[in-house]
Write a structure and sequence with these properties.
The chain is α/β, with parallel strands linked by helices and 294 residues long. It has a single domain, classed as P-loop containing nucleotide triphosphate hydrolases (Rossmann fold, 3-Layer(aba) Sandwich), CATH 3.40.50.300. The longest helix has 18 residues. The chain is globular, with a radius of gyration of 19 Å. 37% of the residues are buried. The chain binds adenosine-5'-diphosphate and magnesium ion (MG). Keywords: Amino-acid transport, ATP-binding, Cell membrane, Membrane, Nucleotide-binding, Translocase, Transport.
């Protein structure tokens, strides 16, 4: 049995409200994300998806439960060890969260400079590699305000990948983008998953987004997992009746799109990947690890 890359065990989070009341945003959630998964969290607005996702890297500390990523239980780590563990967990957001007064290059370099220990030329090489990966090498000297939404999100992805993480957390990454840009961005995420081997956890309220790229999804209702099932996996395709309306819709949407998915997984595409000029960059990026991670 393989140990999951991420294991959430009985995690709960309660917020204290300004009026002194309490609100249970995450209730006793347990889940496993395996290495190589694209794991989706779907639910209505206010269901607790973002709060749950923020537990994965301890941006939000759970009141109870354990969060284990790559064998390290995060709640038990010292500040210093947590900072190090977080370099293995990249994150992107709906509103991109870029530094507006910094160039694209400096945005991507930011986490590497903060961490220290690398020479400017090493940082520059790494930043350029990550920008090439998201096809934004030509925009290195631009500022965020000069980019489209899709380009901004690609910069955020490059920044998240700069430290060579094993996991990429995505909170509504396409919700600020139009349909066409959404498709392109999802293709980039799928590419990062397949070719770099980065495990992805993606939160969305949009069925079509998760149906397109996830191999496993959890439906979140009132801070808890209402159901969890496999998608897009011929062998693991789960035909059990779904318990939730969202689960039924997602499964139906997925069935309707299966031909499409089979097409994406075809050998012809694998051949494309092998001849893609970015393959060398991809190999370099996949091999990249800070000395601290070796
Ligand atoms: N810092 C906070 N303080 C109080 N309540 C919060 C806080 N963060 C989130 N909540 C509440 O927790 C619930 C879940 O929020 P969130 O995780 O953002 O849901 P989702 O991402 O599914 O829309 C919401 O009702 C929200 O108002
Ligand atoms: Mg949210």
């Amino acid at each position: 049995m393989t140990i999951p890359l991420i294991r959430i065990e009985h995690a709960s989070k309660t917020f204290t409200l300004p009026d002194g009341g309490r609100f249970d945003a995450v209730r006793d959630v347990s889940l496993d994300v395996r290495q190589g998964d694209i794991y989706g969290l779907i639910g209505k607005s206010g269901a607790g998806k973002s709060t749950l996702l923020r537990l994965f890297n301890l941006l939000e500390r759970p009141d109870a439960g354990a969060i284990t990523v790559a064998g390290r239980e995060l709640t038990s780590l010292s500040k210093r060890d947590l900072r190090d563990a977080r370099r293995n967990i990249g994150m992107i957001f709906q509103q991109f969260n870029l530094l507006q007064n910094a160039t694209v290059f400096d945005n991507v370099a930011f986490p590497l400079r903060i961490h220290g220990g690398q020479k400017p030329e090493q940082i520059a090489a790494r930043v350029n590699q990550c920008l090439e990966l998201v096809e934004l090498g030509v925009k290195a000297d631009s500022y965020p305000a000069q980019l489209s939404g899709g380009q901004k999100q690609r910069v955020a992805i490059a920044r998240a990948l700069a430290s060579g993480p094993a996991v990429l957390l995505c909170d509504e990454p396409t919700s600020a983008l139009d349909a066409e840009t959404t498709r392109a961005l999802l293709a980039t995420l799928r590419d990062i998953n397949r070719r770099l081997g980065v495990t992805i956890v993606i939160v969305s309220h949009e069925l079509s987004v998760l149906a397109e790229i996830c191999n496993r999804v959890a439906v979140i209702e009132d801070g808890a997992i209402a159901e969890e099932f496999a998608l897009n996996e011929p062998a693991g395709h789960d035909t059990a009746p779904r318990k939730t309306a969202l689960g039924r819709e997602l499964a139906a949407f997925n069935t309707a799109n299966r031909a499409n998915v089979a097409d994406l997984a075809s050998p012809a595409n694998a051949a494309d990947a092998a001849t893609d000029p970015r393959t060398a960059d991809v190999a370099a990026i996949a091999a990249y690890r800070e000395p601290a991670h070796v």
